[in-house]
Amino acid sequence: MQVLKPIYDDVINRNPNEPEFHQAVLEVLESLEPVAKRHADWLDAGIFQRIVEPERQVIFRVTWIDDKGAVQVNRGFRVQFNSAIGPYKGGLRLHPSVNLSVIKFLGFEQIFKNALTGLPIGGGKGGSDFNPRGKSDRDIMRFCQSFMTELWRHIGPDTDVPAGDIGTGAREIGYLYGQYKRLSNQHTGVLTGKGLTWGGSLGRTEATGYGLCYFMEEALQAKDQSFKGAVVAISGSGNVAIFAHEKATELGAKVVTMSDSDGFVHDPQGIDLDLVKEIKLVRRGRIRDYLKRHPGATYGEQCRDIWQVPCDIALPCATQNEIDEEAARTLVKQGCIAVGEGANMPSTPEAVKVYLDNKIIYGPAKAANAGGVATSALEMTQNSQRFSWTFAEVDEKLKQIMVDIYTTVSAAATEYGQPDNLLLGANIAGFTKVATAMYQQGIAY
Ligand code: NDP
């Protein structure tokens, strides 16, 4: 990196102690070096400096009373990163690891992902260091209500539209929406992932996992490969992982692993998805419970060992940096031909280098997992029209969007001389759309 190196150095100096954010910025700026060399106009207009600085960041106290009557204090975040092409859009993460660095990395990635969907949505992200694990429904409800008591003044259906992410599923969106409605006296599409009887879209729950498989099937077929007959390793057992399993299986693959933050199961017969749904979605239990019904499966306590299980296709769907260089090398050694990222930034930069050096078919998160936010944008469209589409209509649109994303990303990679580097293609194509809008909208003096 030459032209953009000073911008990256500035990001480091101005945002100390934000390693995840630095990692996400570095990955994007490295890809954008050839773009900067072609676009003196964008350099002159400060587009690169501007895009790494959030338009607005809100950090707030969330106080709530737990079941025992004790006062609890958490920290809430909403980073409104870029609104050049539409209202801020991005999920809310509830996990003890949440801090400003994590939310900024996610919000920054979201800008380019949202641009790739072809839909009018800007980039944002939010969340809290609240740990939902082991909490009662009432604890979760009181937390969500308190969180929204502050957040509601910063969001709106044409301003900023949050959604789910780790720890924020249908239940949490319900509690958040109820409180928004109480405070604003408005029934609008201010959140996505809503319940089907109050503005939600059919197909939203499945969208990220299904979209991941649609994207990867396109990438695989370009290399005369397919999910059909493939052995697939999936990490995680949440929303993305479950529906990636469902679609990969439908496309003819056998999924042999799933995990949670305690460990992973390996079932060489193929993971029984109905059982995983029962454990994780109904009982909110732990993945190790899988062995009670399938004693032939094995359980490993180290999450990262999941990548030692031989597979043709790996779909990391849990969290950031879950595949490091060593895990990537193991995957390659065991004959893995493709990695599709369901989670955000699940591969370290060193792991990505291993994929590219070894000609692994690599679907980077901001392209491969864009199906969730794309379907959220379809939910917004239906809310604006006060109308709803059938599951088949939404799924068809999702599939077309994922095919289009693959075509766009692949064309940008080819244009910039590295046809197999879909990460480069995704960063350049997403950035180009946002940069063009920022340039046309001028600079505020
Ligand atoms: P869920 O909360 O539904 O599931 C997350 C899964 O990952 C759970 O199985 C969880 O285990 C596991 N997990 C969480 N943290 C860790 C960790 N530190 N180590 C190992 N496992 C972990 O979240 P989603 O499925 O919605 O999100 C998963 C990933 O996909 C995230 O990176 C998210 O940002 C990304 N994503 C999600 C989208 C969506 O539409 N939901 C859209 C695009 C990207 P446990 O049960 O133990 O917590």
Outline of this structure?
This protein has helices at 5-14, 19-38, 40-44, 47-51, 100-116, 137-151, 170-184, 204-221, 239-250, 273-282, 290-293, 325-333, 349-357, 365-368, 371-385, 391-415, 422-441; strands spanning 56-65, 71-82, 88-94, 122-128, 160-163, 231-235, 254-260, 263-266, 298-300, 313-316, 338-340, 361-363. It has 445 residues and is of the alpha/beta class.
Q: Could you explain how this protein is built, in words?
A:
With 445 residues, the chain is α/β, with parallel strands linked by helices. It has two domains: 5-187, Rossmann fold, CATH 3.40.50; 205-363, Rossmann fold. Helices cover 48% and strands 16% of the residues. It contains 17 helices and twelve strands. The protein has helices at residues 5-14, 19-38, 40-44, 47-51, 100-116, 137-151, 170-184, 204-221, 239-250, 273-282, 290-293, 325-333, 349-357, 365-368, 371-385, 391-415, 422-441; strands spanning 56-65, 71-82, 88-94, 122-128, 160-163, 231-235, 254-260, 263-266, 298-300, 313-316, 338-340, 361-363. The strands form two sheets. The protein has a seven-stranded mixed sheet, sandwiched between helices. It has a five-stranded mixed sheet with strand order 1-2-4-3-5. Strand 1 (56-65) and strand 2 form a beta hairpin. Helix 1 (5-14) packs antiparallel against helix 2, helix 6 (137-151) packs across helix 7 (170-184) and helix 8 crosses helix 9. It is globular, with a radius of gyration of 21 Å. The model has no long low-confidence stretch (mean pLDDT 97). Bound molecules: NADPH dihydro-nicotinamide-adenine-dinucleotide phosphate. NADPH dihydro-nicotinamide-adenine-dinucleotide phosphate is lined by residues 164-167, 169, 208, 236-241, 260-262, 303, 317-319, 342-344, 369, 372. Residues 164-167, 169, 208, 236-241, 260-262, 303, 317-319, 342-344, 369, 372 line the site of NADPH dihydro-nicotinamide-adenine-dinucleotide phosphate.
